[in-house]
Every structure is written in structure tokens, then in C-alpha cells.
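Sharing a chain and its predicted structure for anyone who wants a worked example. Both blocks are below, sequence first, C-alpha cells second.
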Amino acid sequence: MVRDFCSRVTASISPITALTTTKRRSLQRNRVLTEGSRHLVPPRILPGQGLHPRTPVDPHHLRLTPDMENDLIRKELEVVLNELGAPAGAITLERPRDPSHGDLSTNVALTLAKRLARSPREIAEEIANKMDLAAAQVESVEVAGPGFLNFRLASSSVALVIDEILKDDESWGRSDVGKGQAVMVEFVSANPTGPLHVGHGRQAALGDAISCLLEWTGWVVHREYYYNDAGRQIDQLMGSVRARYRQLLGEREPLPDDGYQGEYVKDVASVLLGDVGDRYLKDDSREANDEIRAFAVKMLRDEQDRDLSDFGVHFDQYFLESSLYAEGLVDAAIQALTETGLVFEHEGATWLKTSHFGDQKDRVMVRGNGQPTYFLPDVAYHATKWERGFERVVNVQGADHHGTVDRVRAGLQALGLPEGYPEYVLHQMVRVMQDGQEVKFSKRAGSGMTLRELYERVGVDVARYFFQMRKSEAHLLFDLDVALDHSDKNPVFKVQYAHARMCSIFRKAGIDHKSVRSGAANLGLLEHDLELDLVKRLAEFTDVVKRAARDLSPHILCDYLEQAAGAANSWYHAGNPSRNPKLTVLIDDDGLRDARLALARSVQIVLHNGLTLLGINAPEKMIRADEEES
């Protein structure tokens, strides 16, 4: 039953993918080995196991508490707790949400209240009085609320993170949360029926950033694009191209009522005419229509690929919907689902009891005319993902797919796949605004602004950042007035200028920034509040990357980069010799100069790594009309 369907998937896995791979990748632990277009499928599920090899994937279960530990504080707490006769197990140290509460906080006193039969605040006060702050590298400890202990780190301890940043360099921010497990991220997956629009652009930027965040946190990421090259929309495209083609030959053939209106259809028809002449002028045969359809799909696919490549987005695999039909996998899915006993006939259609798995209602699998609904090939496609070894899959899709989530998951559960598979990131629509008015029409697309039109106007870096800087579930107002502003009012330029300003410090000093090494400077000399606040902000980077990856939310990283850039810009401008020569980086005091150069280099590393994660350039030199070179 289910295993027969999976065997069919396995037998067909190589031809159905119709893919182009750009990498040779070995996926660990029963994953897919990709070499060229050949796929070696992982070990089969044993008989009797069904498709329940592990706990269902749930994004909430993957959330890990950021590692905010400080060994010196923990060690000193352990000493005090032993004196109190109440040794604690693991002592949790976390960074407070409110910086006014200190640098690190623990609730250990609250966890000991019952054992010691004392109020947690009393315990906290005794711990605070007994701690050796110097040994813990702590400037102060405060008791807050019912018994929290809030620590402010000594400046010498705070600055030590700079050495870690300098040592890790381009690896700063990476972690091993994923432990080399495979994850597929499917995104864009647009119908090849026209140019990509700005909504596709948001999805491309989000999917690519999510992929990078997962890679930086230890996952082996596989980027996949699903081409919807079958069905009614493709037939509409064929009819539209055929009509325009014949019009070019002098025929008065009207566009289909539901045809595509954009100028790009004329472009496709013109190229077709140049290739085949009048071959299809009077030929309405199935073979002729198939050839026109294939020509149009290929030409528009090629255009979409170019648009995405120029946008900095690339894929490991392309999967064709048509291959699911060609290889019989849709029929195999129907058979496997029928054998579950959850399929029934009603009013001439074939239904699946998806409500059995939490869907709002049962769904039609096959219409009365014998044609499968969109839901069925989606189930068959996702079954191939599991069979190819991807036990974790993230689908980045538009919010208009919200209604398909439960039914696809229900269909997969019926086949024995775990609950919550796959994960979804659904994004809302994009509205492009200028001068307070929405920019709607593109003559070439015959609808909204195309992705290429947008990024050729504002630049790829700006477009990518704007698409990523808001929560995916929030509607995005893409303000062209802000996007075209080359000042700090534009958030991506704010971050890029901060990076360029750090680079300018080294040019003015006449030294190579890569010559700044870990352990070479006395970082304890960094004592000014602006310096210490900046260092604390840099120290958060790894945890921010973990959180953004955990939540599949690139906007978290955007928020952080803007805050870090703001802190860096404040420090940079405060050190202007005309304002406060004592805070300038290139000060006469060699020791302090070296420490500040180490800080500048650390800022440079963090901003560079953050922008790289978002697929955005980190320029070393930028010039604005209202200030000197940065």
C-alpha cells in the first residue's frame, strides 16, 4: 500500500526530477547524494515501519534557547551555592530583554526557594553578598523582582568578545544547531506563464535568506524550485501565444477570453515566428499545440532563471510538475490513498477524508471529469521530498496558499508521513508606492511591476533588503521614495555606510584591516559607554542568527543590523576630531589606538557577515554628496 507507492517514487526518482544541479553535495545521515542528474535514494524504510521513522517535524520543537552562558559567573555561583548547602544543577544565564536590567540574568534563587524553604529574594540577596565579583569578572550584581540576579559585566570582560570575533572572522556567527542534517527549502516555484512579479521577488529574497540562515546554523540546505508546467494555466499560455503568433501572420485570431494580455506574449510569439515561420498558421493539431506550449514554457522559464540569477538567487534543483504525470506518480498517489480506506465517492467526484487529520473539511481528490485537483499532485510531489531523504522541508509561499496547507499535510499524513510536514513560511503581498500612490501597472507584464523592473530601478541590494526587513506575515509597502534615497534614511544604506566607515578608518590609518589580529590589543582600555555598548551589541550576533534561523525570519537579522549600524555610526561620529578628539580611533596613544582598531575591525566583520547572510554586498567605499568619503 503505502510502501508500494514509495517504491514507485523510488523507482522514478531520477527521471521525474528533470533537474539541473549546480552543486555536488553529499547529504549526511541517509540523505540524497547528488552528482550531475543522478540521485541515489537513501535506505528504504523497513516493512512494518510505515513512514513514521521519527517524531513529527514542528518548527516550534526546533527552537533552542540561545547560549548566553558565562563560565566565570557560573563557576562563582556554584561556589556560593555549595556554601549555602544547595548545589544547583545547570545554572541558566540569559541576556535580559531590557538592557537596563544588566548584561546577564539568572533565576537560580527562584529554583532553590522550595528546597531551602526560604523566599527567593532572600536567597538572591545572600548570593549577591557572598559572590566574589572580581573572580566572576562582574562589575555589579543586583537583586530584582521576586529574586532574579542581574549582572553587569566588567568592561575588561565585555571587550574579550572582540578577540573571539577577530579569531573567527568570516565564520563569526556560525553554529552547529542543525548538526549537518539535511533540509530542503522550496521557494519561488512560479508558474512559467509570464515574468516574475514583485511578490515572487519577496519570496525569492526570503527563501534565499532562510536558506543561508539555516546553512550558518549547521544545516545542509538544498534549494528547490517546483515548476508548475502542467494544467489549465499552461493551456491558457499556449492559446495566448498561438493567437499572437497568428496575428503576426495577418490572421484575426482573438486572444482567448482567459488568455494572457502582457506584451511579453507578443515577444514569445515573435521569437516563435522567427524559428518556425508559418508552420502552425493552420495547424490546430495536438502535436502543434504541444510544440507551441513547450516553446513558450521554455522561453519564459529561461527568462525567469535570468531574472533570478541577476537577483542573486540560485537553486540546486528544478522539479517539473509535468514529470509527476509522465511518471505515473499522481496515479500512484491516488491508488495509495485509496488503499488507506479514507477515500470515498460523492456526487461523481473522489474525496479524501482530510478532516480525519484536522483539515476543516474533506477535500476532492479527483473531479467528476476524471481530472485531479491541484491538491493531489502537491501530495505526490511532497511524498518524493520525503523519499529523497528530506525529513525537514520548508516551503516559502505566498499567503494565497494558506488554504492548501492543511489539506496537503492531511494527504501526507494519510500516506503515513509525520504531522506538521512540511513547514510553511507564508508571506503577504507587496505594494510598490511612490509619492503616496501605488505603482501598479507594467505594460510588458500586463499587470503589476515585474521583479526586474523593480531591481533595475532601485538596485539588487536595496530590493533584497526591503523584501526581507519586515515579518513575512505582514503586508509590505515597498516605498520607492525611501528605496531611492541614498542616505541613512534608507535602512540598507545605513548598514552599508556603517561598514564602509569602518573600512575608511583603516584606509586613513594606512593599514590592511586583515592585519588586525586576535590577542594583539589591550581590550581593557575600551572603557567609554559608546564603546562598551557597541561591543555588547556585536556579542549578540551569533544568538541573533540562531534566533532568525529558528524562527525562519530574516527580518530579525535586519533589525539587528540596523541597531548595530546605529551603534557603530554613533561611535564613529562621536570620535570625529572636531567633536571629541579623545574618542577618535586614530588617537596618539598606541595602546588605545590598537584597541579601537580592533573594535572597528570587529564591527566590520559583524556587518559584513550579516549582509552576506542576506545576500547583500558589504561595500568598502561609499561616497555621499553631503559628507566625506566613507
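Comments welcome. The mean pLDDT is 86.
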